[in-house]
């Protein structure tokens, strides 16, 4: 088997394994009814977007078990969005966040926009649909996900998440960590896998004590784990091939850690390193 064939096989295997753990009843979703008023449809029409893609995003995000504190902050953010403009896109966002699942979509879009350029939203949701076992006949076309990205690309996370993500990310850039060659970038399969894994720990489906190797994005991932899922985490700088590393951040005692995230150097295998998962364009740049 060639290296290329092995990579393709690993990619499909990662998607299949995630889909096998799927918690969404797609048979029930397929036969469920969606309804919109003419006024609501006019809002979507004025924004040149399909209401279906937003309905799918809500269904996909229903699998994530976010913390009560994150939900409260997202509710506050929703109220701010409701009063921050009167154009059609704001009305579409208001319709999106009318349910708990919609609030989760708001949170997911916000944390992604904090680290990636908005086009990454389309890649993330397209990959999430595959890795959630969504039947191919139900999946929106790529162009529809781009419509969602155009509307939701303006969503920014609460300041508390942004500050935490910046603080955690800087820990991977400090000179004394010896990390000038940190693994760059992260792809949609890696991001979906991490967020699904965090949700499973948060909901009690997984008992934790998991290590995620995240390269330069470890700080951003750590912020998601703590802010969005309320996990007890440890953030480390990984040296060489060993799983042991220098702890640079922890929000609990060692025996209480549910999730360890590691900055790891280029050339050191990361979660999904054999998977064909091209990195999405990030906003943060390496500091000199």
From TrEMBL:
Highest taxon of the lineage: Eukaryota
Stated name of the protein: Uncharacterized protein
């Amino acid at each position: 088997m060639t290296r290329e064939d092995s990579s393709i096989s690993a990619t499909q295997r990662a998607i299949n394994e995630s889909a096998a753990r799927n918690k969404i009843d797609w048979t029930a979703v397929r036969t469920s009814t969606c309804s919109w008023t003419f006024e609501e449809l006019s809002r979507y029409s004025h924004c040149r977007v399909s209401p279906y893609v937003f309905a799918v995003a809500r269904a996909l995000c229903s699998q994530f078990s976010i913390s009560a504190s994150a939900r409260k902050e997202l509710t506050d953010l929703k109220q701010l969005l409701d009063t921050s403009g009167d154009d059609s896109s704001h009305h579409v966002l208001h319709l999106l966040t009318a349910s708990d699942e919609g609030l989760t979509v708001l949170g997911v879009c916000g944390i992604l926009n904090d680290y990636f350029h908005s086009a990454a939203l389309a890649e993330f949701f397209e990959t999430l649909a595959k890795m959630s076992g969504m039947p191919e006949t139900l999946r929106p076309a790529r162009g529809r996900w781009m419509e969602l990205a155009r509307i939701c690309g303006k969503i920014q996370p609460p300041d508390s998440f942004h500050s935490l993500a910046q603080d955690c990310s800087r820990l991977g850039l400090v000179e004394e960590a010896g990390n000038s060659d940190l693994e760059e970038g992260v792809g949609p399969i890696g991001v979906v896998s991490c967020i699904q894994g965090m949700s499973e720990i948060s909901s009690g489906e997984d008992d934790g004590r998991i290590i995620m190797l995240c390269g330069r994005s470890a700080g951003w991932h750590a912020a998601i784990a703590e802010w969005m899922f309320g996990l007890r985490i440890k953030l480390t700088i990984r040296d060489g091939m060993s799983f042991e590393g220098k702890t640079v951040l922890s929000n609990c005692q060692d025996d209480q850690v549910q999730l360890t995230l590691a900055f790891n150097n280029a050339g050191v295998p990361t979660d999904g390193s054999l998977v064909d998962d091209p990195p999405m364009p990030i906003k943060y740049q390496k500091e000199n």
